[in-house]
Each structure stands twice: as structure tokens, then as C-alpha cells.
Specification:
about 50 residues; elongated; alpha+beta
Amino acid sequence: MEKAQPIFDWGKYHEKEGRLMMPFTVQVHHAFVDGIHIGKLADKLQRYLDEV
């Protein structure tokens, strides 16, 4: 039986136009996760990074 595990990947941060940027990728199987869940994750991650 195969397991559907999400894949998270991020790259090196850099500065662009006075802001710190960091590439971030999430890969999931659509049968297990809706796009809204990925959006909520992205929003929560952004709020966390804004506070750091």
C-alpha cells in the first residue's frame, strides 16, 4: 500500500527590493489535500516569518 506523504522544499533566502525572499514548495496528492489547506499553510507560515 502506498502512502501519500507531502513533500516540502525550501531554498536559500535572499534580499529583493528591501524584502527577504525564500522559495518554498509544497507537493501533495490532490485526493488527500485541498488547495485551501495549502493556502492556510502558506498564510500561517508567512505570519510566523513576519514575527521572527
